[in-house]
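Page 42, continued from yesterday. The earlier attempt failed because a stray header line got pasted into the input along with the sequence. Redoing it now with the clean sequence only.
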Amino acid sequence: MVCALLLVLTVGQLVVATFFASGLEQFEGKGFAARLGLYPVMMLAVPLVWRFTSKRRADPPWAAFAWIMLPYLVDVTGNTLNLYDSVTWWDDANHYVNWMFLGLGAGLLVTRGRPRPVWEIVLLVGGIGAIMAIFWEVGEYYAFIRGGTELDTAYTDTLGDEVLGTLGALTAGVITVLRGRVAGVARVARVRS
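This time it went through. Structure tokens are written below.
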């Protein structure tokens, strides 16, 4: 239910921005037509891959899917509310926090099944986040930076966004480990009582 709501709210804002409010300053030159085509695909990619590859079809990891979908809604809502242009720190905070959300989803997925060492969880989640940050920045470049008004500052912004995204994902890896330890302590306490 939460995943469907995240998808509907994101796509709804994208449709409005692309077809009904494209002349508003916060949507101009930011690739909303491309986002309308790509965001739903990216939001549904992990659930669909899980659906067609998992042997545990009866128990979908909905919380993981929701964490992975949430950043798309945050990004679109930030544009709808004009936060990228009116709040100087919004873009940086967005890259850190959204990659932490993506990392929390990835952390839930990589810790399903067999137990993993702490270092492996943190590196897996951080690495997945770093890879996604690189692909995201390539997508931004292709969608609206090349030939646009932001080309002069794109290099510095891109490097900063990749670093913040990777740090957000590493934070999620640490949170995943701490969450697992707390859950393990709670399980031990229940068994002993």
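Notes: The chain has seven helices and no strands.
Reminder to self: strip header lines before submitting.
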